[in-house]
Amino acid sequence: MKLKLLFLLSIMLISSQAISQQDAQFSQYHLNSSIINPAYSGLYNRFMINSNIRRQWNGLPGSPTTNLLTINSSILENKVGGGLVLQQDEIGITTTTSVNLLLSYQIELGNNQIFSFGLQGGTTSIQHDQSELTLRFLDDPDFPQVEERSSSPNFGAGVALMGDNYYLGLSAPRLLNSEFDDGITNSTIYKRHFYATGAFTKELTSLFLIKPTALIKYVDGSPLSFDLAANIRYNYKFWFGLFTRNLNTQGALVQFILNEAYKLGYSIEIPTAKHIESSFVTHEISLGIDIALFGNQDVYLRNF
Q1: Secondary structure of the chain: what % helix, strand, coil (to 5)?
Q2: What is the DSSP letter of 164?
Q3: DSSP symbol at 235
Q4: Residue 164 backbone class (left: φ over 0; alpha: ψ -120 to 50; beta: rest)
């Protein structure tokens, strides 16, 4: 146990070499795909605000914490979508803040099917606060007690296709590698990410609707990652479901729905891989609000 803990801490605290090169993971993307795909913005003719707070490996000092806020809306008679994604990740002594603007264009294909193409652009800022390190020797030249900052641009794109009972998406929200360069060291912080998502719904009875979902993520130099989930909606009042990530993390989620417009969700993930203690669970809380802000917008219960 102690050896594993020291190993994990050493990975997170040696910031110049060991910053994660993958985007933060979420378990409640199935009702807010703008997290990973700019084409999702404006798919629904409404104004949407969603927030997520994720605490990964709770109980482990310096473990990742992610705060997310997404805002998106249909505009120009539901032909165009626009949005904003604000995200802050903290891991050890490193804080990463990203800001991205979203823009999409929708094409109606008939039979209530919509095709959307989206772009996003913004910046990623990284800060290392080495004064937060607890050192045996305060004058250790390898760990000066200073703050180091760097920023880099970001650009992404995606497409989405949605019908009455299905959703498909392909996206690359991070097409540019994010580099950390403080004038002394230079390293790649985040690499290009590619996502493929899919979901469909099937009514089982008048009260139950089932929605299987899948997400595949590819990052250059890393193994292919996938999420599989089965979610069930009961009586239009709440969702509950089970999911797995790479078959070595298992989780469950629940989301309550009020007046078809307000959503409060919670999920828990338990690692089952041999190299991570199962006591290091992950918690995620989400809050979503759908509003008919403009005259032609409408709010009704959505499944994607």
Answers
A1: 10, 55, 35
A2: S
A3: T
A4: alpha
CA–CA separation, 65 and 47 (whole Å): 27
The rounded Cα 156 to chain-centroid distance in angstroms is 14
Contact 121, 152 (CB under 8 A): no
Q: Which of 212, 302, 206, 207 lies closest to 263, judged by CA?
A: 302
Q: How far apart are CA 125 and CA 211, in angstroms?
A: 36
- Nearest residue to 256 via CA among 47, 28, 24: 28
Contact 127, 94 (CB under 8 A): yes
The dihedral sign for the CA sequence 8, 12, 16, 19: positive
- Rounded Cα distance between 155 and 172, Å, is 9
Opening angle at CA 202, ends 37 and 267, nearest 5? 55
Say if pTM beats, i.e. exceeds, 0.70: yes
Element (H, E) at 9: helix 2-13
Q: Count CB-CB contacts under 10 A for residue 1.
A: 7
Q: Can you read off the two tokens belonging to residue 166?
A: 């299905």
Amino acid code (one letter) for 118: G
Which portions of the chain are predicted below pLDDT 70?
1-22, 130-147, 178-189, 273-278
Return the number of other C-beta atoms located less than 10 Å from residue 37's C-beta: 28
Question: What tokens does 196 get?
Answer: 């493929």
What is d(CA 291, CA 6) in angstroms, rounded to the nearest whole number? 47
pLDDT score for 136 = 58
- AA letter at 263: K
